[in-house]
Design brief:
The protein has a single domain, classed as Nucleoside Triphosphate Pyrophosphohydrolase. It has three helices and seven strands.
């Protein structure tokens, strides 16, 4: 049993479902964003609109927040991860993460205040949300190892 994932229905109902984009550059760094009013960096993405599919959510969020165009044909599921929500105290966040490629140069827009490209093996001193630091970045590294082992 993992202690970071609640088992009771009351806490699970307090969970925010989001879709997450893991975008890497040519050097293998991962893009993180910081929302206005937050100190923590997270992966880009967001909440689904009613009836919206996961990749449609990512396409919309990447366009609105970063000026990027999602290349949906490159999307690979990375996993579904859950932890404490960084921007909504007392709540949890459950993110469906995809490794994706996007076209364009990311620039902060909408609710995004800042961007950072980090090495997932050594993220440095940035304040990174638990979902990213404890789940998504380790999953990215595990994916790298699996892909390397197949070569």
């Amino acid at each position: 049993m993992r202690p970071d994932i609640p088992l009771d229905g009351e806490r699970a109902a307090d969970c925010i479902d989001i879709v997450i984009a893991v975008i890497r550059d040519a050097d293998g760094r991962v893009l993180l964003v910081r929302k206005l009013g937050s100190d923590a960096f997270i992966q880009p993405g967001g909440k689904r609109e009613p009836g919206e599919r996961s990749l449609d959510t990512l396409a919309r969020e990447l366009a609105e927040e970063l000026g990027l165009r999602l290349r949906a044909d490159t999307a690979r599921p990375l996993g579904v991860f859950e932890d404490l929500a960084v921007n909504e105290p007392g709540r949890r966040v459950r993110g469906e993460a995809f490794l994706v490629e996007a076209e364009g140069a990311p620039a902060p827009a909408g609710e995004i205040a800042e961007l950072a490209w980090i090495d997932p093996r050594a993220p440095g001193g940035l304040p990174i949300a638990r979902l990213s630091a404890h789940h998504i970045l380790p999953a990215v590294l595990a994916d790298d190892l699996r892909r390397e082992a197949r070569r």
